[in-house]
Description:
Chain A contains 18 helices and no strands. Chain A has helices at 3-6, 21-25, 30-58, 69-104, 113-135, 149-153, 157-185, 198-230, 243-260, 263-276, 284-297, 313-341, 350-373, 375-381, 385-415, 421-448, 462-492, 532-543.
Amino acid sequence: MSSVQETSGLAAESYLTEHTVGSxxxxxxxxxxxxxxxxxxxFFFAIAAVAAAMMRVSLLWPDxxxxxxxxxNKLFTIHGVLMVWFFLIPSIPAVLGNFVIPxxxxxxxxxxPKLNLLSWYLFMLGGAFVVYSVIVGGVDTGWTFYTPYSTTxxxxxxxxxxxxVFVAGFGSILTGxxxxxxxxKMRAPGMTxxxxxxxxxxxxxxxxxxxxxxxxxxxxxxxxxxxxxxxLGIFDPNLGGDPVLFQxxxxxxxxxxxxxxxLPGMGVVSELITCFSRKKIFGYYFIAFSSVAIAxxxxxxxxxxxxxxxxxMYAGMVFSILSFIVAVPSAIKVFNWTxxxxxxxxxxxxxxxxxxxxIGLFTIGGxxxxxxxxxxxxxxxxxxxxxxxxxHYIMVGGMVTGxxxxxxxxWPKISGRMYPELLGRIAAVVTFVGxxxxxxxxxxxxxxxxxxxxxxxxxxxxxxxxxxxxxxxxLGIGYLMPLxxxxxxxxxxxxxxxxPWGATGLEWRTPSPPPRDNFEETPLVTDDPYDYSAxxxxxxxxxxxx
Amino acid sequence: MPExxxxxxxxxxxxxxxxxxxxxxxxxxxxxxxxxxxxxxxCYTFARFTYPQAFQAASHRLYVIYGGPNTAILLCSSFTMxxxxxxxxxGQRKSLVTCLALTVLFGLAFLTVKGxxxxxxxxxxxxxxxxxxxxxxxxxxxxxxxxxxxxxTGLHAVHVTIGIVVLATLAIMAWxxxxxxxxxxxxxxxxxxxxxxxxxxxxxxxxxxxxR
Lengths: 546, 212
C-alpha cells in the first residue's frame, strides 16, 4: 500500500534472538539493557504501588484503621523513595531513552556500552539496598531525609536506605554521561543538531541535570551517612552546623530532579503529537531550546521548597521570581504542541490518547505549581495535600502518562509485535479517569488545610478521601491492564511492520525488532525531522487517495 | 558491516570518533566530580563565613609544613603526568613507563606525607568525636572545622588512591607493551590533573586563608 510498509518483514536475526540468561545479564546491547531496566522498574513500581494502595485504604477511615501511624510513615517513605529514584528517574531515560536514542541518531549503540550495563548493575545494587532496608524494618523519614530527624532520631535503617539511593545515583550519573557523549559523537552522517528528534533534545537536557545535580545529592547523602555513623557532622546544630543547609543541598539536587522526571515525558509527547497529527512539529527550535532552558533555569529555583524554612524573605522573592520564569519554557512547549494539533489530521491511537492526556494534566500540574511559587500562597499551602496533588499531576499525570504513551508507541519496535489497540485505548481512558478522581480531590483537601503525611484527619474531610481511594482503585486497573496485555502481546500479538505508525525518524527505518547493530548499514540523513507533509504527499501520489 | 579497525570498539565508525568520545566522556565525568567536591566546599564556605574566628584558630592548627610540600609534590606529579602523555603520543615507551612510574611515586609520596599529617592530628587530639580536645573558645565550631577537614582531605585521598591504582596498572601495561593506543594515558591524565586541582583549591582554603 505505501512505501512505509515496504521495509516491513522480520529480520532473520534480531536483538531478541538469543535466549540464554547470560546473554541478558552480560549484554552490552543498549536495547537489551533497556529491557532489563523495564523489567526492574516494573518490579519497583509494583512495590511502591502496593505501599500507595495501603495508604489509600488506610485513609478510608478518618482515624486510619488499616495501619499504625508508624507503619503509615514507613509506607509513604517507601512509596516516595522507590517511585522517585527507582521508577520515575529511570523510567523514560533508562528504558525508552536507552532503547531509542542510538536508533534515532543512527548509531549502532551508545558510546560506552559496558558503562551502560554497569549503570544497570549499580541501579540494581541500589535497589537491593533499599529493598533490604524495607525488609528489616523500613524507614520513616519520608523520601526527603530531612535532618536532624534522619541523622539523629530515625531508626538506623536510614543508613542502608541512603546508601541505596547513593549507589543508584552513580548509575544515573553514568547513564547521563553516556547519553551526552552518545548524542555528541555518535550521530550518523547528516544528522545535524537541528535534525535531531525533539526527544533527543529533551534527553540531552535531562542528562545535563543527571550529570550536574546527582553528585550534589551524592555528597549530601554521604554527609548524612557520616553524620549518622560518626555521630556529628555539618548538619548538626550541636557543632554549629545547620539542618537548613541540608535542605538547600537536598533541593539543589531534588528540584532539578523534578525536571529529570518531566523533561523526558515532554520529549516523548513532542514525538507523539506530531506523528498522530500527521503534521510537522510547530516551533521546532522553541521546543528544542525550551528543554535546555528548563534544565538551566531549573538549577536556580530550589529555594521555593523552603519559603517557610527560615530562608530570608529576599532570597524567597528571588526564588519565587525564578520559579515563575522556569514556567515560561514549559508553557512554550504546551503552546507549540497545541499549534501542532491545529489543522492536523488527528487520529486517536493509544499513544496519542496518552499524549493528549499529558498536555491537559501537565498544564494543570504546571499552573498549580505557580500557585506554590507565589510566596504568600505557599505559606497557606505548604506541606498540604495541594502540594501532593500538584506534583502528582506533574509526575504521574505528566511523566507516567508520557512513559505509557512512549511505551505503546515504541512497543512494536521493542517487541516486534503490536499490542491490542482497543484494550490500549480503554486502558488509556481508564487511567485518565482514575488519575483525576484520585488526585483532584487532593487539591480541594490541600486548599482546606489537610497537611501531607498524616495518618488521620478530621471527619469532615472523609468524602474527599473516599473519592480519592475510589479513583486509586480505577487507576490501579488502568495500570494493570497494559501490564497484562503488553506481556501477552510480546508473545501472541500481531507481528509489527517496520513502521506501523507511518512515522518519521530513523528508528522506524529498521526492522521490528531491530537487528543487533540496529541498522543494516549506517543511515545517511538528508532531511529535517518530522516531515510528515512529505510522507502524506507520497501516500497520496501512490494511492491516489487520502 | 563496516571494516573493523583494530582497537576500535564495534559501536564506533572510526578510531578518531572513539577518541573524541572517550575524551568528552572523561570531561563530563570531571564535571560531575566538580559538583561532588563543590557541594562540600560550599558547606565549608558557609561554615567559615558563619564562624570566622573559630575556623581561623582551627586552621592555625594545620601544618603548612605538611600541606605546602604536599602541594609541591602533586604539582610535580602533574608535570610528570603531562610528560607521560607526551611520551605516549610520541610512542616513546621507555620514557612513558618512567614518567608514569614517577607520577605514581609522587602520588604515593603525597599519601605518605598525608598519613604523617593525620597521625600528628591524632596525637594532638584533633579528631572530631573520637578524640577532640580544644583549648580556647568555640571548641565545637573548631570541631566542625576538623570534621570538614577530614571529610574533604579524606575524599581527596580516596581520589588520589584510585588515580595511583589506575596509573600503576597503565605503567605495567605499557612496560609489557600491552598498550595499543595513547588514549588511556591521556584520559587518566585528565583525571590526575583534576585530582591535583582539587588539592590546589583545598590547600589554600584549609591551610592558608587567614594565615598572617
